[in-house]
Each structure stands twice: as structure tokens, then as C-alpha cells.
Amino acid sequence: MIGARGATLGWTVVRVVFGVSLAILHGLPKVTGGMGRFADGVAALGFPYPIFFAWCAALAELVGGLLIALGLFTRPAAALAAFTMVVALYRHRADPFARMELALLYFAVLFAAMFIGAGPYSLDAKVRHRI
Does residue 93 sit in helix, strand or coil? Predict the structure, then answer.
């Protein structure tokens, strides 16, 4: 039986993989060139100031994903990114499940990170122990 240490290591791997994936595969492409099309999609959802909200979502994915991977400000970063996934789920509400599955998976992990935190293998833990 692996026990608590294995659970801690397992959560760290999930947090890092999901954080890096969110940042590199979703946030970075929006920030480095896909913002116009993404802002059009945000406008189609009825958001006011679509460019502003598109940047908020893209940065929640890019910066939030990196913070989650590092385990720094994990809970607030996860909350902002989870909200972005709620909007993505709303956007894909009429699509086949396969189109919304990725947003649902990210939401589940981000929602868990809001409550669990980063764990002992994180910068949050290092900062907390210094104070």
C-alpha cells in the first residue's frame, strides 16, 4: 500500500500535468496569436467588452496554469481558471459530449485544486513554512 505519501505524489503529478497542459496547450496559443478569433467567440456568448474578457480567460489559462503547476497561489489561480472552464462548458453546452469533455476534465481538477490546495510539494508549502 502506498499511503499518504503516494497520494501526495499522485496529486502533485496531476496538478503539474494539468497546469502545464492548460498553460501551454490552451492559454499560450490564445495569447500568442489566437486572440482575435477567441474574442469573437467571447462576443458571440454575449459578454460585454469581449477583448477584455478574452484576455482575462487567456491569462487565467496561461498564468493560472503555470501558477497551478508551480503550486504558487494555487487556490486563487484554480478558482479563476475553473470559472473560465465553466464558461467553456456553457459555450459547448449544445455540442456533443466529446466537445465538452476537455473543459469538464479541466474543471474537475481545478475545482479539486481550489479545495485541496497545492500540497506539500509546492511553492505554496515552501512559502507557508517560511512565515
Answer: coil
